[in-house]
Amino acid sequence: MFIGNHLSSSKGYEAMGKMALSLDANTFAFFTRNPRGGKAKEVDEKDVEKLLSLADEHGFGKLVAHASYTMNLCAAKDEVRNFSREALADDLRRMEYTPGNYYNFHPGSHVGQGAGEGISLIADALNETLTPEQTTTVLLETMAGKGSEVGRSFEELREILDRVSLREKMGVCFDTCHVWDAGYDIVNDLDGVLAEFDRVIGLDRLYAVHFNDSMNGCGSHKDRHARIGEGQIGREAMRRIATHPLLAGKPFILETPNDDEGYAREIRMIRNWTEG
Ligand code: FE
Ligand code: FE
Ligand code: ZN
């Protein structure tokens, strides 16, 4: 299976690859720039080359880059929206140094404009930015529905996807904590939730999993991640998700509150579930 966690990009690409190997990971996530915003460092091509050959040599799965949290393509303020569009375009340009991977982002918060307006602003930004030449697949993350987050239901994600003309460049990242917090009961009815995802969006659009337990209950709309087995989703349900045949082969990214040793331990536990 392809499993890894969020790594700090501050020491560069090769350093992330080596860190992943030290955790027994074979994929990872990284912020394309400081998660709280700011200017991105220019890419060092030699450094990227080293990562690409390391990833190739060790059979890594797709990498799942994550956009900055400050990016909000459906902000009410023009300057925030414009900054977000520029960040998206710049991130996608830099993603091409690691061709063929995934770029995940939070659709955005409509801040009172309504989900419909949010959806159309997000789709407009994507239509302005995506190009037929790009090799990156852009993923919408399923959201917990905290505040005015867009993407709190499969229907909202589907509506964004429907409005993007370069559909083949788009997919969805399934965050287990967020889906649960949004009100989908993946503990008692995982098959039903996946069937619902398939009916509304299509499982062929599910490219990656953010694998997190949740501190809160189903439908709580809180978005507080817990370590695997220590939250309200719980170990057994997390095990069923990790071993579900419909999710096999996707990159699983841990975003759990852990130090390096904790991540290594979770990766080992999940590998034991799936690889016996
Ligand atoms: Fe996220
Ligand atoms: Fe996530
Ligand atoms: Zn979250």
Supply database-style keywords.
TIM Barrel, 9 helices, binds zinc ion, binds fe (iii) ion, 276 residues, alpha/beta, two-stranded antiparallel sheet, globular
Overview of this structure, please?
The protein has a single domain, classed as Divalent-metal-dependent TIM barrel enzymes (TIM Barrel, Alpha-Beta Barrel). The protein starts with a strand and ends with a helix. It has helices spanning about 15-20, 45-55, 80-95, 115-130, 155-165, 175-180, 190-200, 235-240, 260-275; strands spanning about 1-5, 30, 65, 100-105, 110, 135-140, 150, 170-175, 205-210, 215, 225, 250-255. The chain has about 280 residues and is an alpha/beta fold. The longest helix is centred in the N-terminal third of the chain and has 18 residues, at about 80-95. Helix 1 (about 15-20) packs parallel to helix 2 (about 45-55) and helix 4 (about 115-130) crosses helix 5 (about 155-165). Bound molecules: fe (iii) ion (2 copies) and zinc ion. Zinc ion (ZN) binds near residues 177, 178 and 225. The site of one fe (iii) ion (FE) has 4 residues, from loops.
Beta-strand residue percentage: 15-25%
- Work out the radius of gyration: 18 Å
Q: What is the chain-wise order of helices and strands?
A: EHEHEHEEHEEHEHHEEEHEH
Approximate helicity band: 25-40%
Name of the level-1 CATH class = Alpha Beta
The hetero compounds bound to this protein are: fe (iii) ion, zinc ion
The major pleated sheet works out as:
8 strands, parallel, barrel
Strand order of the largest sheet: 1-2-3-4-6-8-9-12
CATH architectural arrangement: Alpha-Beta Barrel
